[in-house]
Write a structure and sequence with these properties.
With 250 residues, the protein is an alpha/beta fold. It has one domain: Rossmann fold, CATH 3.40.50. Helix content is 40%, strand content 18%. It is built from 11 helices and 8 strands. Strands 3-2-1-4-5-6-7-8 form an 8-stranded mixed sheet, with helices on both faces. The chain is globular, with a radius of gyration of 17 Å.
């Protein structure tokens, strides 16, 4: 690290759990973010600010006026711009040292497998279940840690899946892929801060995983009710009948 980096990250480096070694792990890391919306916005901002070396972000949408209520990485002047390009510009303004790779494309198929394999960690910040299951399957296949978040109405949830470590369940252990698209913000609405809360937790869990510090949400699902401001926690275990886990074992 040079003097500018030591100063930029000084408030993190002074934490004994992080120190120089932990910060260097962040600088050397490659993170893949799927989705540049309500969750991807705060998650990407904090990861870039914290010094993640490379952030690759995929999204196939453009910035719309209705996004600005919660997708804080975008600005009014970005309306009509590709979300990944708007995100890239914001992150580079926050921290020009971070390498931000922006791809306007739906991440699927062989491209998904290649990107997950090349990443140290994946953040699922998308808003559709077909992508969630596909990302989960790729993470299980390549044993890449996955930080999964979701938010709708006044509710949010977040968990961590670490395939091959600590007998971790996967996303498919928790939810069944029945081919039906479930609720989303466009149909059901969402209060803006709930996406910020969940996205920030995703960033926090990602950093802990990269630096191998603290206790992550592996095997736990955090549920937030924003109206009552109450957190609930569910313990998760591997489902012996999970098709995604069984496929990799076989």
């Amino acid at each position: 690290m040079n003097d500018q980096q030591l100063l930029r990250y000084s408030r993190q480096i002074m934490l004994p759990q992080i120190d120089i070694a932990g910060q260097q792990k962040l600088l050397d890391s490659k993170v893949l973010i799927v989705g540049a919306g309500g969750l991807g916005s705060p998650a990407s901002i904090y990861l870039a600010s914290a010094g993640i070396g490379q952030i690759t972000i995929y999204d196939d949408d453009e910035v719309d006026l209705s996004n600005l209520q919660r997708q804080i990485v975008h600005h009014t002047s970005d309306i009509g711009t590709d979300k990944v390009i708007s995100t890239q510009q914001t992150l580079k303004n926050i921290n020009p040292d971070v390498k931000v790779i922006a791809v306007k494309h739906r991440l699927e198929g062989e491209l998904l497998n290649r990107e997950v394999k090349n990443a140290d960690l994946v953040l699922d910040c998308c808003d559709n279940f077909s992508t969630r299951f596909a990302v989960n399957a790729a993470c299980v296949k390549h044993k890449t840690p996955l930080v999964s978040g979701a938010a709708i109405r006044f509710e949010g949830q977040v968990s961590v899946f670490t395939p091959g470590i600590n007998n971790s369940p996967c996303y498919n252990c928790l939810y069944t892929d029945n081919g039906e698209e479930m609720q989303n913000c466009a149909r059901n609405g969402v209060i803006s801060p709930i996406t910020g809360i969940i996205g920030c937790i995703q960033a926090m869990e990602a950093m802990k995983l990269i630096m191998a510090i603290g206790e992550t949400l592996t095997g736990r699902l955090l549920l937030l009710d924003g109206l009552s401001m109450q957190w609930n926690e569910m313990k998760l275990s591997r489902n012996s009948m999970c098709p995604t886990c069984k496929e990799q074992i076989e």
